[in-house]
Amino acid sequence: MNAKKFIGLILILGLVVGATVGCSQGTSSSDSGKLVVGATPVPHAEILEKAKELLKEKGIELEIVEFTDYVTPNKALANGELDANYFQHLPYLEDFKKKNNLDLTSTVAVHFEPMGIYSKKIKSLDELQDGDQIAVPNDPTNEARALLLLQDNGIITLKEGVGLEATKQDIVDKKVDVEIVELEAAQIPRSLEDVAAAVINGNYAIEAGLSPAKDAITAETKDSLAAKTYANIVAVRAEEENREEIKALNEVLTSPEIKQFIEEKYQGSVIPVF
Predict the structure, then answer these.
(1) pLDDT of residue 74
(2) Which residue in 38, 75, 49, 111 sits closest to 269, CA to CA?
(3) Model pLDDT, residue 227
(4) Cβ neighbours of 274 (radius 10 Å)
(5) Which run of H or E residues covers position 53?
(6) How much is the pTM?
(7) Residues ≥6 apart with Cβ < 8 Å to 22
(8) Sequence-ordered list of residues with C-beta below 8 angstroms from that of 99, at least 6 positions apart, any chain
(9) Which end of the chain is less crowded, N or C, counting CB atoms within 10 A of the terminal residue's CB?
């Protein structure tokens, strides 16, 4: 190959590489003025739809990506598919990022969804009988939360001090000999016909047409420790915590407009914490 051809080939390769890099940068979700946020459908994506209007006034385009599980949104955030996610509480984020070695952080707490005990078969927990099954979420933090709610209502007794690390193996006594059945949180509302009772996360209850305020036998209260511990948060990659678009998202999600929207739309099934 002569020198002219060699130089020409180098120039062509340089143009190809440059074009490839340019395309990659152009499709990044970190573009100024745009945010891609992952959320579970109810209530998070609905709240973000309201926030979308307010962010547009600030010159920021919000794209909402919906997820129906509690695992994928954090992985998508960590690998750069999302700029933020809004679906989880802090204990879940801390547990998930530790187990998966992810550098994610919480920026702001927005709302609390009361976890409730629901049933299609009984109207009072006093009606539970030996052999009855109670479904609880199978992910660590939500299972512990469910078990603590059952303990608060006298159904079970847990080992002293287990707190947010509780599993069904930590049950040391039962009021009646119920069986605790661990299921994926999203599946529990669909299994309500098959068990005597079920402890359901607020978002999945609402999605199934259930209201913690109206349909639950009992639920966590807005002034409870759970309300403070399990407030739902916005999570981001740690290095983007101070990005201007993220700050704007946080401001909008804790604005008077969003507070009014949550209170009017969810009537106590979702409670603002700001």
Answers:
(1) 98
(2) 111
(3) 82
(4) 14
(5) helix 46-57
(6) 0.75
(7) none
(8) none
(9) N
Instruction: Work out whether the CA dihedral 47, 53, 57, 59 comes out positive or negative.
Output: positive
Q: Are 106 and 168 in contact (CB under 8 A)?
A: no
Task: Please state which architecture CATH assigns to domain 116-221.
Answer: 3-Layer(aba) Sandwich (3.40)
The one-letter code for the residue type at 174 is: K
CB atoms < 10 A from the CB of 62, how many? 22
Output the CA–CA distances (angstroms, integers) from residue 188 to 117, 207, 269, in the order listed. Answer: 11, 12, 18
Q: What is the distance between the alpha carbons of residues 161 and 149, in angstroms, rounded to a whole number?
A: 15
Whether cis (ω within 30° of 0) applies to the bond prior to 43 is: yes
Q: Within the chain, which residues score under 70 in pLDDT?
A: 1-31
Retrieve residue 15's tokens: 């143009």
Intrachain domains 30-113+230-272 and 116-221 with the same fold: yes
Ordered alpha helix ranges (H), 90-215:
90-100, 140-152, 202-207
Task: Locate the domains of the chain by residue range.
Answer: 30-113+230-272, 116-221
Query: C-alpha distances in angstroms, 114 versus 16, 48, 268?
Result: 54, 19, 9
